[in-house]
Amino acid sequence: MNSPINRALSQFGVTEIVGRKHNPTIVNYFKEIGHKWVITDETAWCSAFVNWVALKTNVTRSGKLTARSWLNVGIKVKTPQLNDLAIFWRDKKSSWKGHVGFFIGYSESRNYIYVLGGNQNNQVNIKKYPAYRLIGFRRLQALK
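Below the sequence we write its predicted structure tokens.
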């Protein structure tokens, strides 16, 4: 099945290249989603990665490179499932900055949310984020 979580997992371990060279896989995420002007893997790419996964799995996408743009896509959910997105604030709650990735699960204490995403320590991996930084969960819809 071509689910978003499976497509995202297929990219596990894709990592930025330090220095003047750039990982062509990451640059290609931008190209395929219509942001051909991005030519480096240093450009923030968590939203580009989610847009690329959404494109490849034929679900709704934001088309934008900002993590918070995902708050306007799909359906808001309170109880997330695999394939749902988790959107977090970064720097401060009122900032435009954020992070987006695919929900994996909560820590046992529920103080952390595990997310599969891009640009997490400069690679595609699973990382935990403090639950207090969550802005919302979204469920993407299949395109007809």
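The radius of gyration is 14 Å.
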